Amino acid sequence: MEFDVIAPVGATTTADPAWMVPFAQHVEACGFGSLVAVEHAVMLSEYSSIYPYDASGRVELAADCPVPDPLELLSFLAGATTTLGLATGVLVLPNHHPVVLAKRIATLDALSGGRFRLCVGMGWMREEVEACGVDFETRGRRADEQIEVLRALWSGEPTTHEGEFFSFAHAVCRPAPGERSIPIHVGGHTRAAARRAGRLGDGLQPLGVAGEELVELRRLMASSAEEAGRDPEALELSLGHLVTRIDEGKVERLAQAGATRVVLAMSDTTDLDRARDELSACAERLGRAG
Known about the structure:
Elements: E1 2-6, H1 17-29, E2 34-37, H2 70-78, E3 85-88, E4 91-92, H3 98-111, E5 116-121, H4 126-131, H5 139-153, E6 159-162, E7 167-171, E8 184-187, H6 191-200, E9 203-205, H7 211-227, E10 236-242, H8 248-256, E11 261-265, H9 272-285
Parallel strand pairs: 1-2, 1-11, 2-3, 3-5, 4-5, 5-8, 8-9, 9-10, 10-11
Antiparallel strand pairs: 6-7
Helix pairs in contact: 1-9, 2-3, 3-5, 6-7
């Protein structure tokens, strides 16, 4: 079981290098697997979209909360760490042109020594996706094609693609990950997300899902993988919990639910010492070196 830690964007400190560098270094020292960075290209001071992960329908982040670009943040922190994995959770895929994104990700992966994992989502906020110039209704089809483009360009070989949304000929994207396949996980709570993970991804990171609903998503991911001629046993499942509440008993229950990774959310403290103490206590409960 791998345990990752989400950079606490709600604490409004993730764009502060004096806070984030020692925080990331402590995550590494405690033996956690990866640091996970969230994304919003823009926040909206007014929006009509319904946030699906809270009963209020409103996202917990204020419009003026600093949300640094996750790839830039992880690139910066890669230089301050040595073994810590670097992951998005989630990157809003429709917001990005896949040719440019392929280059950015391959560069980060190369310069970090192959430490990067990509977790993508389709985006719930129509206003954000449309602000990036993308039709909200077709973002799912667009994302399927984006994943195809990313994987093709990461071969490092001359690539030609003719699709519904993107087309190019004889394109070479280097640096390339070579024999290492950069993992692409799919985030989301929907049946479409589970099917996409099975067809195209390396794993699923469902949000706010448990019980029979989670069982059904796992079944859909597996059946979609089989239909696509892929091995469902090779796919991972990342489930969430809280740094301050996780313990070995809860880890056992998450493992029984099929989890291969637990992505841990921090409290929104701006006190760096308190954040590090929370990480150390969590690492001790989980038998990590903290």
